Structures are given as C-alpha cells and as structure tokens.
Amino acid sequence: MRRGLVCAQELGRVIHTIESTHGVHGVGLGLRFSLMNDLLELPEGALPELVWLECHPENYIRRGGLMAAGLMRCRERWPIVTHGLSMSLGGVDPFSRDYLEDLAAFTKAVRTPWHSDHLCFSVAHGVATHELLPVPRNERTVRYLAARIREAQDALGIPLAVENVSQYVETKDSDLTEAEFVRAVVEEADCLLLLDVNNVFVNARNFGGDAEATIRQLPLERVVQIHVAGAFEKSKKLLIDTHGEPLWPEVVELLRTTLELTGKVPILLERDENIPTLRELEGEIRLLDELFQKAPARKR
Known about the structure:
The protein has one domain (about 10-295): Divalent-metal-dependent TIM barrel enzymes (TIM Barrel). The protein is about 45% helix and about 20% strand. It has helices spanning about 10-20, 35-40, 65-75, 95-110, 140-155, 180-190, 195-205, 210-215, 250-260, 280-295, and strands at about 25-30, 50-55, 80-85, 115-120, 120-125, 125-135, 160-165, 190-195, 225-230, 230-235, 240, 265-270.
C-alpha cells in the first residue's frame, strides 16, 4: 500500500494555505535574465494578469552581480517560486550536502512556498549531463525516487513538488504507464505534483498516447502548480520540448480541460529559447489568465 498519508481533503487545505499565504495564484512567468529589465521597468499596475515569477536557483546560488540584484528587486514586486534543474532525483549519486544547504538557504531568502524539481536524473557519477533524462517506470524506481524525495524535502524544510518530464526514447524495464508511475511516486513520497501539461502532450504525440486520458489518471488533488510551454515540431513523428515556441493550440485546450478537473491552480508560462520581449508575451499571459479565471474554484 502506498504511503499516501494525506487525504485529498487535507491536501486541498494544505495547498490552499500555501498558495494564499504566499500570494501565488493565477499566472506566473519564468524569470529569465533577458526579461528582467522589461519586468523591472513595467509600470505599477501594468499587466495585472502577471501575478508571480519562477526562477531556477542554479542561476543564482553562489553568484552575485546584476542577476542576483535583479532577482531581489523582482521579489519586492512579485512572489517568487523556485524550480530546480539539477537535483537529479533519479540519479545514483548521493545528494551533495553543500548543494542542499545552499538550496535551502536560497529558498528561504526568496521565501518560496515550495520548491520543485524533475522526476528524472541529470547527474551520473558526479558528471552533470545538463539534460533531464528519463528513468525506468517500475516499482523499484518508485521506491527509490520516493525515498530520495523525502530526503530532499526534509533537508529543505519546505514542501517539494515533482514534475513529470518529456522523453524521446522508451526506458528499459518500464512496466508502468506515465500516469501510473507519476501517481505511484507522489503517493509513496507523499509529496506535491508540478503538472507539466506540455510534457504530457509531447509524450502523447511522440509515443501515440492519449494526452487527456493521461491527465485524468494523474493524482490531480496533489497538483500545486502547472507548467505550459511551446514545443518544436522536428517531424510529424517527433515533438521536442524546447520551451522556445508559442503555445500550441492543442496545449491550450489540454490546459483548459486540466483546469476543469483541478480547479484554479497557478499556471507558469515557460520560455527558455527564442525569448521575445515581455510585450510579445503579454498575449499568452492574458490568454492563460482568462483560462485561470474561468476555471472552477479548487475544492478544499
């Protein structure tokens, strides 16, 4: 039997408390250095649909200069949520104590209500791959990941949310579906879920699955945050999750369906390549806000 110690009703109260206490609701934007000046120069009251920002701690830890100063200036205007890239939850290397201590200090400094990272590995034998690589979807991996998630969460002292990832090859010894695997991990670890709707869409396109069916089978009561982004169509049989394109209409519709199931969950717009100006992103931000406002209230 899964740990799953927190019932759905209690989870709803916990998530509502986290979001309302820290002001993280509605639409957020991934904070990238090329957008920082646009954000800081945005007049007060302009673009009210943008409510919060998300940052990658790896870009700031043990660094100073303009980026660190700009981040703290942004923190004066918007709540900040942290999203990691290098925890390597599925890796075989023990966690670095220095890394976890630095990360805990950073999350405290920016006052993030939760931290998130990916259900994957990115480090092998001490070498960072700079990729989010998939792990085998089976019971053994579930138990391993759950133990690592609990260890990391205890070290950080704040809730940890894990993100479903996109992948381009099937992993050996996988006997669980994407939804079964994600559900098993978060229930065993008793953690939160960062649901990347675009990743579900990309995987469904690349492997011939049903994206909406996958969404419906996920533990939606544990979703604390949603990611959406644009993908690059390399061929009719291959989508690549580049975060470098406008949102696909299919992803927007999948998000609409997701919000009907989850209720009002904070939505994060990611853009990591071909980053336009903030003005050019305003249309997508307003579209996402419209979807959020039309979503039903979250049960608690």
